Design the sequence.
């Protein structure tokens, strides 16, 4: 087996939008994450809040958001699921298991490069490593050793110089090892196993056996969720569209990476904004066709938020969406039609995002013989029966008069810019007895200027114009 380990080295920071000012995440009055600006001022994890504030008065602080970190790791696991169904979720990263020869993108080196590129596109700070055992891969990733070891490599010898800090040891056991001068993995491997058991217990020996592939590794594999949800907090409450758009663009990058890995698309999504006063604003987006183009998704969000003026500053933004399976199938023979369809769907989505969900309306066909009642207006997309639309369009004009216009009749012949000649008909329509009964004979008529009209005669021999043919 081959195991690929991914460790997010700045997980507490990843759930906050990046800033150009010094910023740190705090837990128990201690810094646990600092951005680049804070590190440039000499700050580092482990420093107390009081000392950090004294060293950098412009430092911004935010409490650790473990719920948001868990959601981010779920998204990372969903991304990893696109490479293998055997994904293990860890406290600060994921493990992926592969067979020795099977890979969705090629050999081991190409696989690692592909995963690393996807992580870089999402903007994560990470370490990655591959080894024949899960413990060895995790040790290498935690030790910032970007290696790709296969069973053909002398990997058992290569793990010996690595520090014990990368092993999942109890803090008391690690301190005891350091006190005895055991600082490297090789130092522990050289010790008698019986002595290690007496000194530290059986767990440390079991860990070494799993590391070296001498004991089977039993892992609980992650089960994918049917939706994506990502929350990004702000170190300072924001009120500008630019700051909000920047955070949304970062979430969309992660979201699109997950959709591509799972071959999924988004048919709709919800953007939630948490305000400083505790209120929550929710904006729902419905797409005409499933989408995963990041530019399209970001553009829709910006269209909706272009004139948005929050009543209270925003402290966090969340994007949630179900992940729908891709239904594109193979490409059509004529690509022009596909691009026209995508362009129209994108136009509808942009209009709805900019003008509101009910701004785009659709006309659908109703099963009624009366022309004025044979169509109805409703929300997009149309919900009426589509099979009869072509038949009705072929027999009846699109442009109908509402109400019908009464025609002049001379010697029993209707006139409209001259006498009308009945070219086709009659078509008897006798219906509506339950609400508004009608008895009509419809004709296609033409005048001396060769203009075609749709006219009808009622039961009292009165003539009316119902519509125009193009």
Sequence:
């Amino acid at each position: 087996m081959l195991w690929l380990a991914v460790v997010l080295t700045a997980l507490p920071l990843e759930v906050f939008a990046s800033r150009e000012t010094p910023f740190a995440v705090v837990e128990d009055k201690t810094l646990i994450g600092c951005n680049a600006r804070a590190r440039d001022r000499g700050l580092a994890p482990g420093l107390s809040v009081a000392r950090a504030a004294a060293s950098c008065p412009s430092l911004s602080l935010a409490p650790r958001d473990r719920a948001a970190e868990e959601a981010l790791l779920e998204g990372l696991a969903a991304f990893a699921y696109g490479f293998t169904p055997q994904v293990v979720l860890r406290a600060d990263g994921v493990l992926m298991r592969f067979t020795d020869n099977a890979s969705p993108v090629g050999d081991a080196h190409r696989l690692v490069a592909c995963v690393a590129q996807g992580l870089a596109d999402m903007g994560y700070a990470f370490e990655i490593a591959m080894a024949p055992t899960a413990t060895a891969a995790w040790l290498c990733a935690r030790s910032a050793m970007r290696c790709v070891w296969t069973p053909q490599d002398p990997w058992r010898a290569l793990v010996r110089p690595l520090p014990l800090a990368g092993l999942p040891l109890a803090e008391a056991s690690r301190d005891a090892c350091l006190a005895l001068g055991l600082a490297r993995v090789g130092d522990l491997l050289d010790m008698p196993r019986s002595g290690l058991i007496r000194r530290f217990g059986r767990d440390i020996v079991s860990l070494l056996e799993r590391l070296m592939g001498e004991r089977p590794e039993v892992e609980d594999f992650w089960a994918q969720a049917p939706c994506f949800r990502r929350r990004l907090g702000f170190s300072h409450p924001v009120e500008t569209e630019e700051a909000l758009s920047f955070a949304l663009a970062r979430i969309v990058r992660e979201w699109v990476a997950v959709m591509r890995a799972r071959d999924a698309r988004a048919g709709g999504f919800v953007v939630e904004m948490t305000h400083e006063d505790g209120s929550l604003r929710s904006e729902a987006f419905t797409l005409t066709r499933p989408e995963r183009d990041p530019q399209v998704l970001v553009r829709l969000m910006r269209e909706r938020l272009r004139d948005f003026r929050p009543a209270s500053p925003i402290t966090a933004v969340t994007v949630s969406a179900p992940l729908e399976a891709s239904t594109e199938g193979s490409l059509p023979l004529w690509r022009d039609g596909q691009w026209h369809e995508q362009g129209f769907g994108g136009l509808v989505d942009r209009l709805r995002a900019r003008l509101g969900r009910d701004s785009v309306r659709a006309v659908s066909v109703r099963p009624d013989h009366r022309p004025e009642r044979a169509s109805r207006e409703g929300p997009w997309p149309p919900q009426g029966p589509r099979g009869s639309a072509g038949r009705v369009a072929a027999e009846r004009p699109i442009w109908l008069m509402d109400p019908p216009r009464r025609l002049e009749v001379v010697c029993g012949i209707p006139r409209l810019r001259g006498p009308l000649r009945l070219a086709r008909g009659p078509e008897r329509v006798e219906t509506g007895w339950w609400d508004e009964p009608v008895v009509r004979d419809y004709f296609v008529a033409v005048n001396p200027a060769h203009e075609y009209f749709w006219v009808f005669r009622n039961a009292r021999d009165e003539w009316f114009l119902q519509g125009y043919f193009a």
Notes: The mean pLDDT is 83. The chain has 15 helices and 21 strands.
